[in-house]
Design brief:
Largest sheet: 5 strands, mixed
Number of strands: 15
Oligomer: single chain
Mean pLDDT: 91
Structural class: alpha+beta
CATH class of the largest domain: Alpha Beta
CATH architecture of the largest domain: 3-Layer(aba) Sandwich
Number of helices: 10
Low-confidence stretches: 1-24
Order of helices and strands: HEEEEEEEEHHHHHEEEHEHEHEEH
CATH topology of the largest domain: Glutaredoxin
Number of domains: 3
Strand content: 15-25%
Helix content: 25-40%
Distance between the termini: 98 Å
């Protein structure tokens, strides 16, 4: 019995030690130092929404160590003040160290943090390239060399999703193991939507509240030619475009033309006031989530004004039509 008990105790200890080692190995830690420092007394760990997760004081030598243990990949900012910060992208198991030079904060020395190191190495090289064509080729090679690196997300927007779709697809496929991360998941979703938003494809539905709180579906306008108009009260080019849309709406609405306005506002009163002032009498919806608008996410909207023109069956005719180009397309459709 004593022998069996002794073996059992040994097994328990081994299991406990192994579990502890495994647990520790799965978490990243971060320490560092701010050198040539004469004014900073603390450093903050923030997420990309600028929410402070932890604050540490700098010792006399500028050294710091965060208590946060990082069990998943994520995007973080290390903030000394509003104008001066670095970034940190941990992978589980890394014992990361960052040396920040107060005289050159945007170019820290990185130890034991692969994704952070990739970001800074490529950022430095990218900033040295002057020719736009060379920048595009540089980013393509970056993705070819690092197809599973989440930091490539910060560079890929320099490519054209239509002509360079293969690179968006390559990166999205390589990042699937990080899909739990909201930023990565959003990129993968947008990439999947690129092909869904080509002319001839059925337009994804949108269901958002109007100013009275009623949910209005884009699909409820089937049977008419519909212009999805992404805009906002704070967007000057959008407001400048509104008089043209009003004229076109008045000209063609009796012929089967509708507009489905999706606002990227965040203040309801400003949104309603703009609708009234600009005399926008067509359907207006918004979830008041600013750039996080669900409608904008579905349609990969990166700038406004942005439009998508649909046929009577709800299929995409064209995107980005404004002013004269929109007038010409409607004239072609309606014959006058």
């Amino acid at each position: 019995m004593k022998i069996k008990l002794k073996k059992t105790l040994v097994n328990i200890i081994l299991i406990t030690v192994t579990a502890t080692i495994t647990s520790n190995a799965q978490k990243a830690t971060l320490k560092g130092q701010v050198i040539n420092n004469t004014k900073y007394t603390k450093i903050e760990l923030q997420d990309l929404s600028y929410k402070t997760l932890e604050t540490q004081k700098l010792d006399k030598k500028g050294k710091f160590k965060f208590n946060t243990e990082f069990d998943k990949f994520n995007f973080y900012i290390l903030v000394l003040d509003k104008q001066n910060f670095t970034v940190f992208f941990p992978e589980p198991g890394e014992q990361a160290e960052i040396i920040i030079n107060a005289d050159n904060i945007r170019n820290p020395e990185i130890k034991n943090s692969e994704q952070t190191k990739i970001y800074y190495e490529y950022s430095k090289k990218f900033s040295e390239i002057k020719n736009n064509k060379d920048k595009i080729e540089f980013i393509k090679k970056m993705i070819d060399d690092n197809p599973s690196s989440p930091v490539c997300i910060f560079f890929i927007d320099n490519l054209n999703p239509k002509t360079d779709y293969e690179y968006f697809k390559k990166l999205a496929d390589g990042l699937k193991k990080y899909k739990y991360n909201p930023i990565v998941n959003e990129f993968i979703t947008k990439t999947e939507n690129i092909k869904k938003l080509e002319p001839g494809k059925e337009a994804p539905d949108i269901a958002l509240p109007d100013p009275d709180g009623n949910i209005i579906k884009l699909s409820s306008l089937r049977g008419k030619y519909v212009l999805i108009d992404f805009w906002a009260s704070w967007c000057r080019p959008c407001r400048a475009e509104n008089p043209n849309n009003v004229k076109l709406y008045q000209k063609y609405r009796d012929k089967g033309f509708e507009i489905y306005g999706v606002s990227l506002d965040k203040d309801k009163n400003s949104w309603i006031k703009a609708i009234e002032n600009d005399k926008l009498t067509w359907t207006q919806v918004s979830d008041l989530k600013f750039w996080q608008s669900e409608g904008a996410k579905i349609y990969n909207v990166k700038a406004i004004p942005h439009t998508v023109l649909l046929d009577k069956e709800g299929k995409i005719i064209a995107t980005g039509l404004r002013g004269h180009n929109l007038s010409q397309k409607l004239k072609e459709i309606f014959g006058y």
